[in-house]
Sequence to fold (499 residues):
Amino acid sequence: MITVNIKRYDPVKKHEYVESFEIEEIEKMKVLDALAQINKKYDANIAYRFSCRAGQCGSCAIKINGEAKLACKAEIGDNDLLEPLDLPVIKDLIVDRSELNTKVKDLNMYMTSEDSEIVKNKPDLIKPENYAMCDQLRGCIDCYSCISMCPVIKKTDNFAGPFFMRGFSNIEFDPREDESLSEKSVENGIYYCTSCGQCTKTCPKEIDIYGKAIEKLRAKIFSEKEGPLNPHKLIRKAVLNTGRSVQPKEDSEYPEGFVKAYNKDRDNGKKNKIAFFTGCMIDNRLPWIAEYLVNVLEKLGYEVDIPLNQVCCGSPLFRTGQIDIIPDLVKTNYETFKEYDTILTVCAGCGATLKNNYPEYGVNLNVMDISEFLDGKLDPNDMNELNLKVTYHDPCHLVRSQGISEQPRNILKSIKGVEFIEMEKPDQCCGAGGGVKSGKPEIAEALADDKVDMIDKLNVDHVVTICPFCEFNINDSLVNKNSKTSVINIMELLNKAYE
Ligand code: SF4
Ligand code: SF4
Ligand code: FES
Fold:
């Protein structure tokens, strides 16, 4: 027997409660079959929706242990919690989709140019290769799971959400459509997306909503007159002028950045097999993190090169669609790093970009986040005892873009005297990414505040992360809320353990 917990809602009494049911365990049983068994066995009158039972109609989407999934496809497990999607609830697991359906109609989510000159005069456009950009996007089954999981929708009415962005992108890149949807995408909040990747991870049809729809649409907008936002334009200008998206502070102990300072004292004749890709934020705003990384690696017997010619990986430009100068950055970084066996990053955004975006330009480097590299190499017997309580924030571009979540936790659990406590939703976006911190700061702040509320429940000394953007954003909120917890980079913590 297994237990299934269902969050129910009685619309008459307006009462919400969780009810548990014991059902017979059947191997590989789907959630929808478990619900059917409950109805049959208990005559429970539980309301839930389904139609095709084959992952095609999208009507059975619910939350299973906090993640939106199709009940007809997901397997049931002991003690699972089934909840309705984060939409207005009608009864039990049935949600009211009418508002979203109306929005589909109001936003004219269909092609308007079927009789256009393009179709009439250029029939050769109707070829599979011309549909490549929108092919994946048209597989949507309107389940609204992505809407339910998007953290930004819960913070603003100005963002229509991933389902609609996917729809706009699908129409925009359809070769039969000659009307631009750029303006409509901006009006419906395309620059509110933090590129957290939650929609992409959630979609049962494996549509890469943020990568293939939102970023591609942002790139289209950039190529036209509407966008991007002014703060984003400044980032591009900085990269064009200096090769870096941010510059050192005037009072920095490394006025030219860490990379140049590191190379000044070194014999450049010797070449190591491992190189360190610092990234703009670590190089120019958090140079001590680079120093800690070098120190810890030296203690473990590794020496790294930090090549001088490295430039911005392009992450802030990819995320905001400003891709015209990307080929130059990719070429420079490829020439700089191509001889190395391993390239280390200590910034989730840089790592994700080098691993996921560079192959689109034909560049495949062996990139490892520092937590991947260090996992399994640390011996607590070589460390100082720290006597600290910590929790860990998963950067979106590490956990979802690179699939890294266990390695940092393994490291934290191996540091002597560190007590590791998990927060409620460690992988919930803090709001720092996708150009949102600079372009829509109120959203970055609102999401970071939620994160800090979770952190403050734990009474820990530090929240650890491996992303400079998360570090700054979470720190702003910790300070605003007078939290007793401070944010710390994993390399700073390790440096304390090894110094
Ligand atoms: S990437 Fe994140 S913020 Fe952007 S639409 Fe998807 S879920 Fe929402
Ligand atoms: S994009 Fe994916 S998750 Fe969103 S509604 Fe369509 S099928 Fe569902
Ligand atoms: S019942 Fe149709 S998708 Fe699940």
About this structure: The CA atoms of residues 109 and 167 lie 7 Å apart.
